[in-house]
Every structure is written in C-alpha cells, then in structure tokens.
Amino acid sequence: MTPIYLGYTFTVHPIAPATEILIAELGYAGFESFTETDTGVIAYIQKEEAFPNMKTIDFKTLLRNIQILNSDEFTITYTAEEIEQVNWNKEWEKNFDPIEVDGRCAVRAPFHSKTDVEFDIIIEPKMSFGTGHHETTHMMIKHLLKLDVTNKKTLDMGCGTGVLAILAEMRGAHPIDAIDIDNWCYLNSIENVERNKCTHISVYEGDVSLLTNKTYDVIIANINRNILLQDISTYAKCLSPEGILLLSGFYTEDISLITEKCNENNLYFVGNYERNNWVACKFEKREA
C-alpha cells in the first residue's frame, strides 16, 4: 500500500532562527522530510506514523509537544493536507546544493560531481541533521579544519549524519565514536561512514549514558543549549588533560551561560566562530 503523507506548511516569523529550531524539533517528533520556503518550511510525516489509530487528523495531538510552537518569541502558524505520494529523493535533490568551507572541505550528495578540495565528503542526509548548510555544522567544520586531531581519540556527540566524525577521520583522528539518540540518525551515520570509506568510526545509538569509563582527547557536541548544559559535566569527566571540547547549537547570547557551566568543570574558553547569531565555541580542559 502506498503510504499517505501529511504535509504541514508552516509560516514562521521572524523566519530566522525560528525555522531552523522548528525543523530540529519536528525531526525529533518524527517528521521525515523538509522543504524550506520563503516564509517558513513544509514538513512531511507518514499519517500512519503520526496517528496510527485515528481515522481523522488531530493536529494538536501531534504538535502539542513541540515547544517552539508555544513560544512567545516567534509567531508560527500552519496548515496541513494529505499527500498520496511524494518522490522524496527528487524533492531532496532539488533542495540540496553542495557546500564548500574555507576552500578545503566540501560536503556534497552522491549525485553531485566530485570536488577538487582536500576533504571531499559525500553525505546523503535524508532527514538527519548535518549537511553543512546549517550555520552550526559549517562552523564546526571550520574548527576541525584548524584543529590538529592527528591520532586523537575523538567523540562526535549528537552526530546526525556523521559528517563531523567523517571529517575528523579524514583529518587523522582515531579511534572515533559517533553517538546519536535518534535511530534515523544512527542508521544514516552508519551509511555515510561506509559511503566515505571510513574505518576508524564506531557509531552508537544512545545518549551520554554510553560515556561511562570513556576517555577522549577531542569531544564535538553540536546539539542544543539545554542538552549541552545538562551534559557538559559528563563531557568534562571524559576529556583527557588539555583535551578540547567543541560546542555548538546555541546563540551568541548563550555564550556566557555555556562558558560559566564549562568553567565549573575546568573547561576554559579559547575562541569561537559566529555565523548569523549562531556560535561554535572551543574550550580546553585545564587542571583546577
């Protein structure tokens, strides 16, 4: 039977950064594909997955746990319709252009031509976060291009598509753990690791509870502010002396809050990149 999809058309104001936050939250809610528009985003989910026991569509039931929809900071409205069939690959190909970072790293899809750069990464993101288009992924790539990770044991926490773990291996890091709590991201990371012929990356499905008795020289965490604040102490325990922590997924106004939490755990600010009010910060572990 051909699956029936629901297409939600969201109108977002202000469009940035609310659209990116909305897409992330919709992904966690089970939406499979997104098409950004001039006014917001169209999101798709299988009707059977959203409402397995309902003959009619109860929009509030599906969306009630998406926090941004109840925020006073943004105005978000939506309409919805049933869609019999969508060629997801075709839709995705129309909206995914290759990117290049600092003339050294390219992130492209399998159907794009090979690029003449030092690090050519092939990613088929499906619904997973991490094509390099988002400001946070772009800036984390910049950090990794500057950082010497040769022979460094590395963790990519909240790995999404696995793009940062893949770049870390290309830059000489090993061994590498890539972890994501989302099953789709976990499976997609495995696919992309194999696609890029990486041999030093182990992908796991889970959260910080997997980090017991683990030690890393470099930890990469591109998640969101609240999860970072919750997990920074665990990252600090896992970092070797003088280890490096790269954090992103938050805004410039959150730097002081993140830095304060890091300082409580002997992690000290080194520098950051900023892009459209998003930031990616570098911290170093020092003895108290």
Q: Mind explaining what this structure looks like?
A:
Helices cover 31% and strands 32% of the residues. It is α/β, with parallel strands linked by helices. The chain has 2 domains: 5-92, Alpha-Beta Plaits (2-Layer Sandwich); 130-285, Rossmann fold (3-Layer(aba) Sandwich). The strands form 3 sheets. Strands 10-9-8-11-12-14-13 form a 7-stranded mixed beta sheet, sandwiched between helices. Helix 8 (225-238) runs parallel beside helix 9 (255-264). It starts with a strand and ends with a strand.
Keywords:
288 residues, alpha/beta, Alpha-Beta Plaits, Rossmann fold, 2 domains, four-stranded antiparallel sheet, 9 helices
Write the layout of secondary structure elements.
Blueprint: E1 5-13, H1 15-29, E2 33-36, E3 40-46, H2 47-50, H3 59-63, E4 75-83, H4 88-95, E5 99-101, E6 105-108, E7 119-122, H5 135-146, E8 154-157, H6 163-170, E9 176-180, H7 183-195, E10 201-205, E11 216-222, H8 225-238, E12 239-251, H9 255-264, E13 267-275, E14 278-285
Parallel strand pairs: 6-7, 8-9, 8-11, 9-10, 11-12
Antiparallel strand pairs: 1-3, 1-4, 2-3, 5-6, 12-14, 13-14
Helix pairs in contact: 8-9
